[in-house]
Model the fold of this input.
Amino acid sequence: MDIVSLPITNSNDKIEGTYRLVIASVQRAKALSKGALPKIASKAKKITTLAIEEVASGNVEVLTGEEAVKAREESKKQTSKRMMDEAQQKETMPEDVSELEKDLKVYLSEKGEANSKKSIEDIFGDS
Done:
């Protein structure tokens, strides 16, 4: 069984070496497995093969050097900002949940009082 289902040709104009092709393809395959849409139409049946084709054909931008460092730092900033936003939402959520619980308890107690006024014959009576 072949690991790669289609032969891949790589010109050195787009990707400097096989190692960079593999690393970029791994990152693209992870993105595809998490739901990213393919950038090219392909006969590939496997996500990994599709990722290699996309990177080798130049449809996926591969950053190197300072660009890659800046992109990684920006990604870390966005990740930490998203985590802070989620933490802030969690802090405000318990108040909202407690209000909802209070309203639900009042509703259930009112409904329970209405049901308790019925007699057993009313509930299980012959109809």
User: Anything to note?
Assistant: The mean pLDDT is 76. The chain has one domain: 18-115. The first helix runs from residue 18 to 33. Residues 18-115 form a domain with the Eukaryotic RPB6 RNA polymerase subunit fold (CATH 3.90.940).
